[in-house]
Amino acid sequence: MEEELNSEGKCLFCNETFSQKEMGKHLATHLKKMEKEDSKKMPETFCHIVVEADVMFLHLLVKGNATMKKIDTFLRKVWLECCGHLSGFGHKDFKISMTHKVLDVFETKVKIYHDYDYGSTTRVFLKGVKNYQLKLKEDIVLLSRNEPLKLMCSKCGKQAAVNICTVCDWSFYCESCSIQHEKECGDFSDYANMPVVNSPRMGVCGYEGGQIDTERDGIYQKK
User: Fold this and answer.
1) Conformational region of residue 156, where left means phi above 0, alpha means psi within -120 to 50, and beta covers everything else
2) Is this structure's pTM higher than 0.90?
3) Domains delineated in the chain
4) Residue 38 burial (CB count, 10 A)
5) E strand or H helix at 55, and its extent?
6) Burial environment of residue 63 by CB neighbours within 10 A (0 to 12, 13 to 18, 19 or more)
7) Which residues of 105-131 are buried (b: 16+ CB within 10 A; e: fewer)?
8) Which residues neighbour 33 within 8 Å (Cβ) at sequence distance 6 or greater?
9) Which of 33, 175, 190, 219 is the most interior residue, by most CB within 10 Å?
């Protein structure tokens, strides 16, 4: 039986590590303190939003009067962009455009989705956590992101995986086992060899990694 993947990330403020389940509650302690400190600085509304794709996650702080395009651009740069595909937000009960204001969409704890690429689609889910009155220069802040998952080589089981073979049941291979697999799979050296990256877009289309938070875009490192 394969080992269940556990997801954890580091807090932007204190650099402490928390599980996917615990992270939102922990970040709230910092954000409440910031809100109190910023109360006399003509603050603006910022929305705490969690983005999830199974065990992968992002916690974002986004200015309420920014447009949804701001989040779309960020998701592309950190998780999704490969070939300039179309993307969009959605909800079963209402439509969401790129020009909608973030606060209007996440005023309540609504859960929506974001699709990138309407051919080989990667879907992630976004949920509003809470709004805060803060004084910040940035329109969007990455509060936390899951650390690289413990993806080990499917063949030796001893080393961290660095490549995926997209034609052999999405098998994972370390450096040395990748060399051996290339001899066994003619497609691997041609088009089926894709890098392991910390993204739900991993192994899809031409995706090879993001442009934001690149230090967490790599492979699992043994402690």
Assistant:
1) alpha
2) yes
3) 8-145 (3.10.290.30), 163-216 (no CATH)
4) 17
5) none
6) buried
7) bbeeeeebebbbbeeeebebebebbbb
8) none
9) 219
